[in-house]
Amino acid sequence: MAHYKLPMLEETGYAVLDSYGDPIDPQEWLSLEYVDWKSGGDTRFAPLASAYGEIECNGFWHFDPPKPDKDGVWIDSQVEKAPTLVKRALESGANVGRCRVIELQPNTYADALYNSHEDDNNRLNPDGEGWVVRCFMNLTDDQDTYMILREDINDPESEVRIKLPAGAQLMVDSERLWHSVWHGGDEPRYCLITSFESGPELEKWMWENNPRFHVNDIDLDPEFAKNSEIEAHERRDARTAYYGYDPTTVKSEA
Ligand SMILES: [Fe+2]
């Protein structure tokens, strides 16, 4: 038996949803406790739900007892500071695994390609249960920032770039799609990232938010794209040589 996957994500692996409505007080994410955790660039994370309610970002399978990326335990001290973020994560009624705010420092398009990876969302997830996907809710109003998605990291033609202003909501099968963020601002970007189990609740909530499955918000100058591609692959190759393997082929724990 296979995992249950959302039919609506079958073709492209992502859906751009309507923006969420009400502005959220930046204090909700700025007052959280962050831990250093590297994923897709210069990042820190503030967990809201973790494997067993501690302020840490490890994959749920590292604990005793190990568990899949579901049934995250809310962290009281963080929940107190960010009630609206928690409300947003719970809105669909779907099972929540890891839920945290990411802080990303500004970077370049080539950096984003260098950082691109696939997530490990379904380790220990029993066959027959819902496939875990990720929802990205952008918090800061990042006007020059894009989620970069590729079906194949080596195929630039498979890329789409999705803008991330405040309120942008995006569901991604991030174990299938290569992903990273090109953050062109000059301040850190903050985004709420939640692991959700695929199922009727998630599906209903996504349909209510007008999902779009073919989105590309910016075209790049071909010369710029080509040079960035070369730079990123040179850096990826150097990293592979350094480690003796490509660390991004070992699915990211973040
Ligand atoms: Fe990721």
The portion of residues assigned to helices is 10-25%
How many individual domains? 1
Shape: globular
Distance between the termini: 27 Å
Q: Specify the CATH architecture.
A: Sandwich
Description:
The chain has 254 residues and is α+β, with helices and mostly antiparallel strands. It has one domain (7-249): B-lactam Antibiotic, Isopenicillin N Synthase, Chain (Jelly Rolls). Helices cover 22% and strands 26% of the residues. The protein is built from six helices and eleven strands. The strands form two sheets. Strands 1, 2, 3, 4, 5, 6, 9 and 11 form an eight-stranded antiparallel β-sheet that branches. Helix 4 runs parallel beside helix 6 (222-243). It is globular, with a radius of gyration of 17 Å. 44% of the residues are buried. Fe (ii) ion is lined by residues 39-40, 117, 119, 174, 179, 252, 254.
State the gist of this model.
This protein has 254 residues and is α+β, with helices and mostly antiparallel strands. It is built from 6 helices and 11 strands. A hairpin with an 8-residue loop joins strand 7 and strand 8.
Q: Can you give keywords for this protein?
A:
alpha+beta; single chain; three-stranded antiparallel sheet; Jelly Rolls; 254 residues; eight-stranded antiparallel sheet; binds fe (ii) ion; 6 helices
Secondary structure elements and pairings:
Blueprint: E1 14-17, H1 27-30, E2 35-36, E3 43-50, E4 73-74, H2 76-81, H3 83-90, E5 96-104, H4 109-115, E6 132-138, E7 142-150, E8 159-164, E9 169-172, E10 178-183, E11 189-197, H5 200-208, H6 222-243
Antiparallel strand pairs: 1-9, 2-3, 3-4, 3-5, 5-11, 6-9, 6-11, 7-8, 7-10
Helix pairs in contact: 4-6
The chain binds fe (ii) ion.
